[in-house]
């Protein structure tokens, strides 16, 4: 059984972080250390530690993460100019929180895709 992270406590609202969206599959809230003018995290309610742990049964949830990202991008007013959706995996991917999440970042030009 994977270990719960801070994100489970945000999803359950045990930690009182304002939610931008929540349904039966996913929850979205602002990143505590935004890396761009707009930086939102879209997280499955179910604990999936890394992209390597995504199963076929999770396809609906993963798809919902993207449709919610699209809605929130529009709500943030960044859809037309554009944005980036990122999921980091494990150490080389720079993952810090082991509960998968889609970063929705935008609100400014984001430059090249990778800086190594
Ligand atoms: P990762 O590096 O795992 O892809 O991204 C984790 C993200 O979660 C980071 O951008 C970090 O700022 C954010 N984060 C970590 N702890 C918290 C928290 O307690 N609340 C919120 N809202 N974001 C967090």
TrEMBL record:
Domain named HIT: residues: 6-115
One Pfam family per UniProt: HIT
Transmembrane portions of the chain: none
Highest rank taxon of the organism: Bacteria
Motif (Histidine triad motif): 99-103
Name of the molecule in the record: Histidine triad nucleotide-binding protein
Native species: Thalassotalea insulae
Lineage of origin: Bacteria, Pseudomonadati, Pseudomonadota, Gammaproteobacteria, Alteromonadales
């Amino acid at each position: 059984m994977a270990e719960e992270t801070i994100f489970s406590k945000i999803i359950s609202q045990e930690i009182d972080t304002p939610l931008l969206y929540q349904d039966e599959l996913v929850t979205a809230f602002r990143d505590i250390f935004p890396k761009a003018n707009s930086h939102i995290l879209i997280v499955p309610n179910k604990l999936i530690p890394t992209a390597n742990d995504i199963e076929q049964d999770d396809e609906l949830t993963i798809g919902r993460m993207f449709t919610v990202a699209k809605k929130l991008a529009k709500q943030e007013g960044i859809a037309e100019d554009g944005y980036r959706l990122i999921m980091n995996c494990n150490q080389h991917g720079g993952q810090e929180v082991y509960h998968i999440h889609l970063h929705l970042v935008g609100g400014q030009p984001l430059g090249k895709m990778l800086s190594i």
